[in-house]
Write a structure and sequence with these properties.
The protein is mainly α and 502 residues long. The protein has helices at 5-25, 32-37, 44-70, 78-98, 107-112, 115-149, 159-209, 217-221, 236-241, 246-262, 265-271, 277-308, 327-335, 340-372, 381-404, 413-437, 443-466, 478-492, 496-499. The chain has a single domain, classed as Up-down Bundle (Sodium/glucose cotransporter). The protein has 19 helices and no strands. The chain is globular and about 65 Å long.
């Protein structure tokens, strides 16, 4: 297993070019409006590409092929819910966001409930985004760490040291153009990066199909081409524990995507950069179609990898991988020709850096606009912009250290990241739905309902890991449960003063 000097040159060249693209396309920022909202003049199609790159790219390129290798096509059912959710967000959420001058997703909560709800939601977002994107940063480091392991220079380095170096390099490159280009630079870099990583995936697919013995037949014989899972289980409890059932994926995908695209600043920040409401709506719906195509491509690659490696299980000592997330990166490094290998690895980095850059920008925007700026009455644009860039650097440092904690894990990172987000997404979505559809709900009820949902979801997700109880439900149901808890408790605890109002 080796990588040539040409491949390394291509990878390094890509890292330099993307840093320059992100830095220069961002333009000159004079205020936080320019830095965090791109001056509200970004084309809708660029935003659509950026949304797809940000939400799935760092996980899709690495984890989805590996997930297909060890399972089947059931994961694709989620995308139907993803598309439905985007339509609902376009119809119900975006009109509220694009009315007035909202700077973050959580400024809507201030207008509806009060400043305390806005700060609370922002802090929950910060903690969730840090944990979930720490996983994503770790996933980005996998291929770079595997490259390092092939170099003699790193023979004396431990596994942790190699991964730590890979994590630091990727984070620093992402930070450069996020710091200088702001969200506009991030979006245009995402457009380039999505083109690169989809192109790289198609090249890998072409190479796989070039092998005479590689086909979908082994996957079909193993029952891995099953798309729909209508297993209802033996009881109600068993039904909710089943992974990726049709209803679980459809309903779970809908609520998960409604939360991520309607309440998560990582995505909402991009939607606020468009010129008009109609542009935002076109961007979010188009992103749903693109996600369907993208997931299909990477699952298809995973099925062909199953054929290429003859379906050898992860525990078999004859294969060089021990984690599902290592299968596709190892195929790239071991099997692809010189030059092509470098392009595809560059695409793999592109797939992950888009999310990292967006995460740094959204974390910084939430801290500055939701927590810092409302406390100060007199601040000038230059000072706010300086503080925003400092917070962006701090966000990068925090993500690096969180990523370190995931090095020893032996689990698909796509499921870890989605599981983490699902714990708090239900509370976030429920709080927004309270504000949109329940006129009697007030700030007290919203905060109590939000808190109750987080507590319930921690119990549901953490206790089974400890072995104290059996798993109650699959993570795809987490957001729905959290949303229901928030709405029920939120309405129950809303003040009596509001009950007489309509």
């Amino acid at each position: 297993m080796s990588i040539s000097s040409l491949d390394i040159f291509i990878i390094l060249g890509y890292l330099v070019v993307i840093a320059l693209v992100g830095s220069f396309t961002g333009g000159r920022q004079k205020s936080t409006h320019d830095y965090f909202m791109g001056g509200s003049n970004v084309p809708w199609w660029a935003v659509a590409f950026s949304i797809v790159a940000a939400e799935t790219s760092s996980l899709t390129f690495i984890s989805i092929p590996g997930l297909a290798y060890i399972s089947n096509l059931n994961f694709l059912q989620l995308t139907a819910g993803y598309l439905l959710a985007r339509i609902l967000v376009a119809v119900f959420f975006l009109p509220a966001y694009k009315t007035g001058q909202l700077s973050t997703a959580y400024s809507f909560l201030e207008n509806r409930f009060g400043i305390t709800t806005r700060r609370y939601a922002s802090m929950v977002f910060l903690l969730t985004r840090i944990a979930a994107d720490g996983v994503r940063l770790f996933s980005t480091a996998i291929p770079l760490a595997l490259i390092f392991k092939t170099a003699h220079y790193f023979n004396d380095w431990s596994n942790f040291e190699i991964y730590a170096l890979a994590i630091a390099i990727i984070a620093c490159v992402s930070l450069i153009y996020t710091y200088t280009g702001g969200v506009k630079g991030v979006i245009w870099a995402d457009v380039v990066q999505m083109s690169i990583y989809i192109g790289g995936a198609l090249m890998a697919l072409w190479v796989l199909l070039g092998y005479d013995y590689v086909s979908l037949k082994p996957a079909a014989d193993a029952g891995k081409l099953t798309l729909f899972n209508f297993d209802w289980g033996t009881s109600i409890a068993d039904f909710f524990r089943k992974p990726y059932t049709f209803l679980g994926a459809l309903i779970g995908g809908t609520f998960l995507s409604m939360a991520s695209h309607g309440t998560d600043q990582l995505i909402v920040q991009r939607l606020l950069t468009t010129r008009t409401l109609k542009d935002s709506q076109k961007a979010i719906i188009a992103s749903g179609v693109l996600v369907m195509v993208q997931f299909t491509l990477f699952l298809f690659i995973g099925m062909l990898l199953f054929s290429f490696y003859k379906g050898v299980p992860l525990a078999d000592p004859s294969v060089p991988f021990s984690k599902a997330d290592e299968i596709f990166p190892l195929f790239i490094i071991q099997q692809l020709p010189v030059g092509v290998k470098g392009i595809i690895i560059a695409g793999l980095f592109a797939a992950a850096m888009s999310t990292l850059a967006g995460s740094m920008s959204s974390l910084s925007s939430s801290v500055v606009l939701d927590l810092y700026k409302p406390r100060l009455k007199n601040t000038d644009d230059r000072k706010e912009l300086k503080i925003s860039r400092i917070i962006t650097v701090l966000a990068a440092v925090v993500l690096i250290f969180v990523a370190f904690t995931f090095i020893a894990l032996n689990q698909s990172v796509v499921e870890i990241a989605l599981g983490i987000a699902s714990i708090t997404y239900g509370g976030l979505l429920g709080t927004f739905l309270l504000g949109l559809f329940f006129k009697r709900a007030d700030q007290k009820g919203a905060i109590i309902g939000f808190t109750a949902a987080i507590i319930v979801m921690i119990l549901v997700s953490v206790l089974p890991i400890t072995g104290l109880i059996k798993p109650i439900m699959h993570w795809t149901w987490f957001v729905l449960l959290g949303t229901i808890v928030t709405i029920v408790i939120g309405n129950a605890f809303s003040g009596k003063a509001n009950r007489g109002k309509s």
